[in-house]
Design brief:
single chain, globular, 11 helices, alpha/beta, about 300 residues
């Protein structure tokens, strides 16, 4: 499929809860391997998020702009239900919490995608163009294989790009991560997208760490759409930041054509789930809080 025929440029507000490691260790304090009962309990916590998502739709979030991103391990029943209800669905292909991209189900990745028939297959990739070149090339090879498979399938390709700072980059900025986010990361993201495109990796949608300046968002869209890729879209990810920071990122991105929405996960659901798990909130309260937070971000993006 030529680059110009790829893309997703409709509004899309994703509720991501495909987190695996952070649920096991962060929310529940468990280490794998999990028992069946533990797996079921984590799946139950994800059902709370899904119920919150559905409550937000019932309260007015447009169904055609809303979607979920959830994993097969803890969210298989949710994926099937969402597919049956006609929601946009996305499912991750990567192993959770790895520094280097690897397929969760190895060479069997295609069979798992086909079993759940998601709108999007999603990958999370850490890729710094000034980092380990051999690592970057290995990752690009795996990702091209997935990209080629998806190009010949009905499933779209969602690419979550993280550009973690290298030690020399942080050293130059005296360890200031905020300075890295503002001064270095935007340029590195553009370079990373360009390198991946040159390697034959062709997402329909780039999931992008939040940016503080409009011109940086514009530069990302220019690179994402270069060479006839006119319909490729970008969405902002929340990165677990506080609500105020996510508000800022969404307000900036919403003003830039090509940024079509967001995927904000932990900022929406983490505190409500922690309160529910600690017995400080009922299940119904957690569902309502998640619905309200998700809808607030939708309203913010739509207003801008």
């Amino acid at each position: 499929m030529p680059p110009g025929s790829r893309g997703y440029d409709r509004a899309l507000y994703i509720q991501p809860f495909d987190h695996r490691g952070s649920f096991q260790s962060g929310l529940f304090g468990w280490k794998p391997p999990l028992s069946d009962a533990q797996t079921a309990e984590i799946a139950g916590s994800k059902q709370i998020i899904y119920d919150g998502f559905q409550a937000a739709l019932a309260a007015g979030v447009p169904k055609d702009k809303a979607g979920i991103l959830v994993d097969e391990q803890f969210g298989a029943a949710i994926l099937r239900d969402a597919r049956a209800k006609g929601f946009v669905t996305a499912c991750p292909a990567e192993k959770s919490g790895q520094e280097e991209f690897g397929f969760e189900y190895g060479d069997d990745f295609a069979r798992h995608i086909e079993a759940f028939d998601p709108t999007f297959c999603k990958v999370l990739v850490r890729y710094n163009p000034e980092g380990d070149r051999a690592l970057n090339q290995r990752q690009a090879g795996h990702l091209k294989r997935l990209s080629d498979y998806l190009a010949g399938s009905p499933h779209r390709f969602m690419f979550e790009l993280l550009v973690p700072a290298t030690k020399p980059q942080l050293d130059k900025l005296k360890g200031d991560k905020k300075a890295y986010d503002l001064e270095l990361r935007p340029r590195l993201m553009v370079e990373a997208i360009g390198e991946l495109q040159a390697s034959g990796v062709e997402p329909d949608l780039w999931k992008i760490e939040g940016l503080d300046r409009r011109e940086d968002c514009q530069a990302i869209v220019r690179q994402a759409r270069i060479g006839g890729r006119d319909h490729v879209g970008c969405i902002v990810l929340g990165r677990g930041e506080n609500e105020a920071k996510v508000d800022e990122w969404l307000a900036v991105a919403a003003q830039v054509p090509g940024f079509v929405g967001f995927a904000v996960g932990r900022t929406v659901f983490w505190d409500p789930l922690v309160a529910w798990r600690a017995g400080k909130a009922t299940r119904e309260q957690a569902v309502a809080e998640i619905a309200g937070r998700y809808r607030k971000f939708v309203d913010l993006f739509e207003e801008r």
